[in-house]
């Protein structure tokens, strides 16, 4: 059945009931009360209000023509009231669901952290088409989905689906459109249902990257499905194999992602072999080291205003680094005063970093701590940094 709001559904239902009932005279007392079309919150008319009728005329003689004309009108009124009671019964049973739309101040609405979309990566450029559409139409036309929250003094609702719409309305209010309001539908959803609803919407969005969705799936696997991937795939109606690949890509750390010009460049098909290679304990340090070099190159290109390294080249270099035979890493020795060694990095592994502080380095305590920090930074650049 096509989606209708409650007002339209009740009107159609009553119209069907009237077609089946005897026609009322042109001046019959049977009248249909209509909800106020200006209301945003569509609600069912109350039975008591529906059963009230205008003041009836004085009774006519029992055998006169007025009595004969009144009988069909009474039957029509009774049929109409039965139709309304039937419609309200369907509302009460849940066959017709009440839809509440609100115009909200976006500052009083927070974004649900379980959504895949990264709010901090939204910008005027990435949302330009939606911004233009909202301005041209004089406001937001497609409502977002929110749910009411408790215990937050700064917010009354949180966005389940519609993060970009929330960002755009917030941006417009801060840039010459202070009267823009956030249009939203209020729903009662638990976290798992909210995740499924947000995921359905994000599947149709080309601007939600594979990495965003992959990390969102990884978090949801633990939060909502007890780390049972099969159950999660069934609930989301996804292929278990496809979901497994997404979760593998989600395992790539930020150190590796920094090698790309943007997280949006990390797509499932090319990134999956990289995630597999990173799963090799012997290859992972080499990938992190190459990723650190690539991140510096990308930063330099951005500062010069030059085009960034394409994702295909980044993945090719990272995979090549993984295939190279790991060479023996030279020890890191940092000097103190007069060229004498001050700090030596003896080892760096999953258990931690071992440093040797040499005597006779000629440095005060503050300068020595600076050399220690320098050693830790060099380990980070080589992909051997202290794991946090």
Automatic annotation (TrEMBL):
Pfam families: ParB_N, SoPB_HTH
BP terms from Gene Ontology: chromosome segregation
SUPFAM superfamilies on file: KorB DNA-binding domain-like (SSF109709), ParB/Sulfiredoxin (SSF110849)
Entry-linked InterPro entries: Chromosome_partition/occlusion, ParB/RepB/Spo0J, ParB/Sulfiredoxin_sf, ParB_N, RepB_N, SoPB_HTH
Bias (Low complexity): 43-55
Domain ParB-like N-terminal: 102-203
Region of interest (Disordered), ranges: 1-75
Descriptive protein name: ParB/RepB/Spo0J family partition protein
